[in-house]
Amino acid sequence: MSVTELEDLNQPEPGRTSRGGLLKVGGLALLGTAGAAGLTAGGALAAPQVAAQAGGSVLDKWTRSKKARLGVDLSFPPLQYIDRRTKKPSGYMVELTQLMMKDLGVTPEWVQTPFAQLFAALAARKFDMVGIAATILPSRALQGWFADVPAFYESNVILVRKNSRARKLSDLQRARFAVLQGSSQQASGRVIFPRATFKALASESDAATEVAVGRADAAIFSEFSSGSLLQNNRNLRALGGPPLFVDANTYFMPQGDIKLWQWVSNWLRYQAAHQTMAGLWKKWVGPSARRFGLATSLVGANGEQVPFIR
Amino acid sequence: MTVAYTYTWGPVLDNWDAFARGAWIDVWVTGISFLLACVLGVAIALFRRSGLRGLAWPAFAYVQLVRGVPLLVFLYWVYFGIAIVIGVVFTSVQAAIIALTLTGSAYTAEIFRAALGAVDRGHVEAAAALGFSRRDTFRIVVFPQAVRIAVPPLGNIFIGLLKGSTLISVIGVPDMVFQAQQINLSYFTPFEPFTAVALILVVLVAAFAALLTGVERALRLP
Asked: Are B169 and A202 a contacting pair at CB < 8 A?
């Protein structure tokens, strides 16, 4: 499958004025602000739905045009990143999505967007679907649909300084943690270590630097990020032991597109049964998990979590 | 194709206290940085006007360099760069104040330099004729007039720094943008929390603009 050139988020779609669209969205947001107090009683989540366009499923559009515009944040190696050698998107999620597109007979067009802006860009129709997986959070599910089968399981591990005295979780009860802002590590870490302090930063490498320079005692990362972080920060080590907790991650789709949701979920179930995700995970995440002794899990034949025996 | 967006104001309203705390952080971090930037700016302006090459040139170079470097880069340099390179570890608030002060000082220096230059030369000569020392001439005659001239553009710098302070969340300062990003990432609701940030900033800027007008009126010569 050929990978088309990366598109900048600023490039408007043919025949569509992106600035105009932005102004519309901004205008709606401002109007929404004015009506917010009246519409939302006591912080309830119910609010009017803005259906931007009802012209059929994204799936139909793809099969008609043979082209799919997918929003991706390519800064999470080895999950999704730009390969330095080929200068093309690469990694576990890129390969999985490419397989999906191949089965549809569709060419993917990658639209690079920072993770924090992926949903805004999807709502603003900068692309058709988010081409990478997101952690399934109940709060996020209020705004869209997660596929029914995980694309991967994210095992979360703790990194500390090499000279840290911490050997087990109980040594970190009152520790200063650095985490990625808005991540499940931030939310779950606070529950697991209620007496610890948490500092949330904009990127994983910033959080790792926080530990490396001694401003934080430990950081919580997914095992797939930990591999490259340990490689780049030689004065860090994994705490070891089983994962702190495991999160399911999968594709996130616009609410209401049941045809797309059903097809993606079905496709993932088929690939889970055929061990496609397990095989890709061993290929992309297995080596660093082995090298640094990181706990990791595979997607099992029924979509269940299967600890990876190294 | 169906793309739906459900306005979800609940998380914003539920976290209004976090937004208020975040806005307060932005205000006081900006306030301290602005005061320090003014002090530094006066010093740099005096160096530039000193007529001594050894002082004027470094001051000129400082202004050119600092004006060219984006605030975001300063934040990363001060917070991460200094800690990695020389091992001096600032807290995120300290780093934010240093970065904002440096950025603001280059602009305040230029404002004070222009304001000092705008004071009527005749007043200086009159002070000299009355037997004022150079120091007293500056303290009693030149500086108070320069401050009056500098107040309106300094107000713009303050507002610029206040808006610039919305970047400090990148180094983990829990300001209002940090709170907005937190809600965005947890609920995938980008418009509502950032609209709340915009509204808070509009109110703050309007309040400071009114305060500035009052200061200008109070300093106006009869």
From this structure: yes
ipTM: 0.74
Q: Which of B9, B83, B185 is facing A47, going by the closest CB pair?
A: B9
Name B69's Cβ contacts closer than 8 Å, sequence gap at least 6: B103
Q: Tally DSSP H helices, then E strands, for chain A.
A: 10, 17
Cβ neighbour number for residue A129 with a 10 Å cutoff: 22
CA–CA separation, B29 and B168 (whole Å):
10
Question: Could you tell me if A134 and A249 are in contact, meaning their C-beta atoms sit under 8 angstroms apart?
Answer: yes
Using CB atoms, which residue from A143, A199, A209 is nearest to B8? Answer: A143
> CA B40, CA A227: separation in Å to the nearest integer?
45
In the predicted structure, residue A138 carries a pLDDT above the cut 50: yes
Provide the phi-psi class of A159: left if phi over 0, else alpha when psi is between -120 and 50, else beta.
Answer: beta
Q: Helix (H, G, I), strand (E, B), or coil: what is residue A183?
A: coil
CA distance linking residue A214 with residue B12, whole number of Å: 34
Per DSSP, what are the bridge partners of residue A81? A75, A90
Q: Which of residues 3-32 of A touch B (CB under 8 A)?
A: 25, 28-30, 32
> Does residue A39 have a pLDDT over 70?
no
Query: pLDDT per residue over A186-209, tens digit each?
Result: 989 999 999 999 999 988 999 999
Are the C-beta atoms of A87 and A131 separated by less than 8 Å? no
N-to-C CA span, chain A: 31
CA A3 to chain centre: 21
Q: How many residues does chain A have?
A: 310
Q: Which of residues 140-159 of A touch B (CB under 8 A)?
A: 140, 142-144
The burial class, CB within 10 Å (0-12 / 13-18 / 19+), for A134 is buried
pLDDT tens digit string along B159-180? Answer: 999 999 999 999 999 999 999 9
Predicted TM-score of the model (pTM): 0.78
Q: Which of A232, A224, A234 is nearest to A295 (CA)?
A: A224
Cβ-contact B139, B116 below 8 angstroms: no
The residue ranges of chain B whose pLDDT is under 70 are: 1-5
